[in-house]
Design brief:
By secondary structure, the protein is of the alpha+beta class. It is 27% helix and 26% strand. The protein folds into four domains: 197 residues, no CATH class; 87 residues, no CATH class; 291 residues, Beta-galactosidase, Chain A, domain 5; 206 residues, no CATH class.
Length: 910
Amino acid sequence: MSSLPRRSLLKAAAVAGAAAQFSWVLGRGGAQAAVSAETPAADRPSTVSWLEPGGLGAAAGSTFGAAWPQGVHPGDQAFALTTADGADVPVQTWTTARWPDGSLKWTAHAVGPEAAGAERFTLAPGTPATAAKTVSVTETGRRITVDTGTVRAVIWKDGGKLVESVTRDGVKIATDGRLVLLRQSDLDDGDQGNEKWERFDGEISGAVVEQSGPVRAVVRIDGKHRKGSRSWLPFSVRLYFYAGSESFRMVHTITYDGDQNKDFVRGLGVRFTVPMRDAAYDRHVRIAGEGAGFLTEAVQGITGLRRDPGAAVRTAQVKGEKLPDPATWDQRVTTRMQYVPTWGDYTLSQLSADGFALRKRTKAGHGWIPAGGGRRANGFGYVGGVTGGLSFGLRDFWQKHPAQLDIRGAAGDEAEVTLWLWSPEAQPMDLRFYHDGMGQDAFPEQLEGLNITYEDYEPGFGTPYGIARTSELMFWANAATPAAETLVAQSAAVSTPPQLAVAPEDLVRARVFGGLFSPVDRSTPAKAKIEDHLDYLFTYYKDQAEQRRWYGFWDYGDIMHTYDEDRHQWRYDVGGYAWDNSELSPDLWLWYAYLRSGRADVFRFAEAMTRHTGEVDVYHIGQWAGLGTRHGVQHFACSAKQQRISTAVYRRPYYFLTADERVGDLMHDLVDSDETFLVLDPIRKIRTEPYTPDRHALSIGFGTDWSGLAAAWLTEWERGGPKAAKAEARLRSTMETIAAQPNGFVQGAGLYDLDTGRFAVATEPVVGVSHLSAMFGLVEMCAELIDLVDMPQFKAAWLDYCRYFNASKTEQAARYGKNFGTLLLFQGHSRQDAYAAAQLNDTKLAQRAWAKFDKSDGYTAAMVWDKTPVQGSAALEPGYEHLWISTNTTALYGLAAIQNLALVGDHLPA
């Protein structure tokens, strides 16, 4: 056997093990039953298609992730991408995760403009096609130059300008790409007009090339905003380039490190200078409204004048084409052109989710006139002339209001374009805590507050210091003013960046994320009913986001926790009932819903949540870096700062499906977050025994705490990150020492040594079970780890926890010496019954799983799935409500339904 190539050995192992890989699933209708026994998984390519219709459109390119069963492809496998009709598409491939045996688990793939026009692709082992144009990167002492074959960008490694220039065919389209920040030092809460503000400019601390082609190049730039001796508001900017493309993408992140009572952001923007070479009448401004709508104007218009220059002249200007020689115009126009005003300045401001205003003026020092308005602008524009210009756009423009687009000086030699992530025309960004503490100075009063508003308050903990926000922008270097259909396509690419995705069946076959999902299945009335309920719940939250306007720079992507049936309103202003902040894993519900369905609307909803919860709800710098904040009125308000919110388990699906580097950063940053337990005891308010954090004896729970640590360690290990060896060692040592506890997971917690990465093994058994322990990703992490790490004792400990949580108190006491006490969330825990049933081939456990799912404490069979209209004076905006729905129950119902169908679907009662 030693003479066989490694790839043959891997394939042989995969084929031989295929039946064993799926054998534990109960019944023939389980998740893996769809895999044909005639075709080994090793011989199956991946099917790839666009998430939304329309293909690549005007985007630069697309990057997507593909999953592979263990043992199928060696770590150095190359891949080829072909269209449905057999045409080769150039593709760049890299590894994002490996299985423990070194075979490929997740790969990332980048395609450029050659992918345009095709709808479906096949990804299979092979030699990738060579692109007609490749992207190249060169570095000198202070600059990085990226050439896509169509455009060339020069990027600074220091100083105040991120992008020195963007050229096309030797013509400068844009220069001096930079960041701008406006700070206001106080807020006038009255009407005295005392506001003062100052400007800070982005200053680079370093830039690195993360990828250099041949299809995709990535440059990361870090720094802070500076004015004089003060630097603050750190930024991290990534620029993405694809071979042959005329555009590039920017992912822009800021981390708030100011004083919430003094540092109010008045404006936050990205700015470029655009050279204006053409005659004023050959310069053009295009600003998108809603949908395909556009403001279409020239800097100096020749339409609508009292004298007509001629139909050919007017038509050319509206199209953005070079005007005929003025000698051919009606001379009554050409001799008076000096009296036709030039309009050099334009502003579109979107200060809410429901309205934008557009205005323009001739130049600074003169009055503005309204130029239109509407409801929701796409956040896209163009300025330039017939010899070239810059298109620019900000994604989620109205969703993350207040936002703004500015064009200044288009009538001069240079126009200035600013994409405001926070509009300077809006109220300044106010991150002050929303109340004065109300006398909750000590734990007793704070616990009383928790018992009335569900808010876990503690002085000094409601701080935004360290939270972050990421925005996405696109830029096109056009050789001429684009035609209307091109501009519409560019605007659409900003609003919904084209995304390639592998088929759900391929993800199921690969058994990623614990193998806890199967394709949507309506094969029986009982299954169809559950599928209908899952669809209902997703649609409800999607509709509620719109009806209740869950939008805004810091809010978009999150959902509310609990509904107030008396006010017909979510409890947005009641303590811990307000923003959800990932409570009980809605992130996972949404991602598992996507993994099994491939639905674009689910993906986009989950994507927005991942962007929010991984940034806004988590601290990235400061004393609590690596911890997230529990649900509350403000995303950072609650004093419970815990691993259960920052956990990498919520980010993993998006990262592996898209290879997004920013989300990769977030997960890598959590590898050493076990150190946070030295800083903050997560259960400090309810401890009954004295406790002082000790580096060699840190109290860490086996549920919400360890699952977060384990997710970060697993991700670093399988990605092969710089701390992979440490992460693997910590993962294995903690798994081993949890399993060694007298009561395993039921022990509840252990004393952890930061230096050895091990839990001390307790001498006495303890029953320390909480209904929350497993509901923040522990179920999913244990399923993955049991598949990956051969540790029978750990598997046995987890299966015991799964079997006994929903068991009777008598059964619990017989096994552990005492029962688990009063518990909740039995429906959510039914998926643990299902998992144990599948692993142990236990029909009774499978039946119990469905009994607990349908007739316990969640959404029961008696629930009526209807919509109650809310209108008139009962609500601010008309819509509908469902009084039985809460986010906790929804998330757990969704996860239990998805996982139970995958694991014990054939045991679902008729």
